[in-house]
Amino acid sequence: MLIVISGLPGVGKTTVADLVGARLGAVRLSIDPVEDALLGAGFPQGWETGVAAYEAVRAMAELNLRTGRTVVVDAVNDSEPARDTWRRAADSADAELCSVVLTMSDAIGHASRLRERDRGFTHVTEPTWTEVAGREVAPWVDTLRTIDVSGMSGEQVAADVERYVVEFRFNN
User: Fold this and answer.
1) How many domains does the chain have?
2) The domain spanning residue 116 has which CATH number?
3) 119-128: long-range contacts (C-beta < 8 A, 24 or more apart)?
4) pTM score of the predicted model
5) How far is CA 29 from CA 32, 67, 133, 167, in A?
6) Would you call 110 exposed, middle or buried from its count of C-beta atoms within 10 A (0-12, 13-18, 19+)?
């Protein structure tokens, strides 16, 4: 199974994906560290490098899915081309695709998370609240679970994701 945890920067995707991955014994993959490495290798900042990071993570997801491993990916996935990356990966590996979108209705809390965030990347910069709040997200067409993380701990969100994964497996 390929579990993709999506959402705007600062909603807790990486924290939740780490928790879910650990609980499920899954392979954990994330876009931002790959993009940071590509930028460090001299790739230019921009859309093409972001796409390259998605494609590199897709290739690793496919390799792991083909060995029967569950894979948990965290990525913003704000466009259909980005989401199609994971559809292709699941199709290529004959795996189920389980999508979860994290949102945060508490704008003050979301802005605060972004101001306080430092993930230690050398080349990927942390977005500002203005950049995140103004970001357009294409409507989703997939079956998915949306979770508003406002007021929830990472553990609570991870437990909700795990319940959905079990429900998803049962219904598919």
Assistant:
1) 1
2) 3.40.50.300
3) 119/14, 119/32, 121/32, 121/33, 121/36, 122/36, 122/39, 122/40, 123/35, 123/36, 123/39, 123/40, 123/45, 124/32, 124/35, 124/36, 124/39, 126/9, 127/9, 127/10
4) 0.96
5) 9, 15, 25, 23
6) buried
Residues of the chain with pLDDT under 70: none
Tokens coding 109: 């809390």
Q: What is the pLDDT of residue 143?
A: 85
Q: Measure Cα distances from 23 to 4, 27, 31, 148, 162 in Å.
A: 15, 11, 21, 21, 9
Tokens of 51: 């796409």
DSSP characters for 12-73? SHHHHHHHHHHHHT-EEEEHHHHHHHHHHTTPPSSHHHHHHHHHHHHHHHHHHHHTT--EEE
Q: Which residue range is the domain that position 84 belongs to? A: 2-171
- SS3 for 147? strand
Mean pLDDT of the chain: 96
* Sequence-distant (≥ 6) Cβ neighbours of residue 152 within 8 angstroms: 160
Nearest residue to 66 via CA among 99, 104, 27: 27
Chain centroid to CA 81: how far? 14
